[in-house]
Hints:
Layout: H1 6-24, H2 34-58, H3 63-92, H4 98-109, H5 113-118, H6 131-179, H7 184-189, H8 191-194, H9 196-205, H10 212-215, H11 219-231, H12 237-257, H13 263-268, H14 271-278, H15 280-296, H16 301-332
Helix pairs in contact: 1-2, 1-14, 1-15, 2-6, 2-9, 2-12, 3-4, 3-15, 3-16, 6-9, 6-12, 9-12, 11-12, 15-16
Amino acid sequence: MHHRRDELDGLRAVAVLLVIVFHASNQQFVGGWIGVDIFFVLSGFLITGILTTEFERSGTISFGTFYLKRILRLAPALIVLLAVSLLAGLLLGSRDRWSDHIGAILASLFYVMNWVRAFQLPYEGHVSHVWSLAIEEQFYIVWPAILWLSLRLGGRRTAVIVAISLIASIVTWRIYLVAQGAPFNRTYNGFDTRADALFIGCLLGLGIALPYQLRRLWFVPVFVLAAISICARLEAPWVNIIGFDIIAACAAWIILALNESSPFKSLLMTKPMVFLGTISYGMYLWHAFFTSVMLGKGVKTEYVLLAILPLTIGFASASYYLLEKPFLNLKDKLGSDRSGLPAQLLPG
């Protein structure tokens, strides 16, 4: 059986609500994009914890089982969204843009939308938000093998050194690109410039901890993230240089602080937050599609804001109970992740 941690589902709810308001407000809620980085940290943490525990118990990592589980978890809901998006593009879009809509579907299906956006290709359609899913899938491709090799060579300590080296390399590379005048789209969407948040999460999965005194200061990272979400514009130069890592570090601090009792943890564990976290993958998939269609048809932002949450929750609930959950049950039959961590990995 999988042992879910309700507080992490609650944190997913916070992340997806931030992103939803960011998109539905047509980016007038300037900092809601930080929800994506919270998802990145969570995914790195969960993946690494599961795979490290598997290696330490069995002496290896079953790559075939790992990738099959990820496909069963992520692909069904995405395929339905892409089918609906293609239909919407054909019905609502102009005929001369059909090739762009088909290109967007293919880019999403093969998880390369982040590179489409990074190099400003025309194939985005109503599904450009799956760029973050693409980054996570690319992470799933490279990290398990790197982790397996690191653990074989020197255990968790070696894996920690490798993760820190990857973080440092990505930050250095991103700063170099910024200094060379690279467009913001390139540094924001590239796997090579954004995976540092995922690797910060990996450090948590490898057992990096905080002193008890810092874990009790849960309000510090919460306050920092709240301030950034209210004040920070995505295109601000400091965001590109070090902002992503500040957000990821705060998200990691919050995750570690959730090991202790706090009012914030209690809030995250309330039934509405846990429920929203449980369906947050579907919420992420559907909210941006509906937002893109409505804004594209000239619906006023205030009406989009009013409509988007009930519409998204309704479709995400149907997606979870009618589509995702049956595949989750099938995934469970492949064998349990016995790490004590939630096995349901939600991309940002």
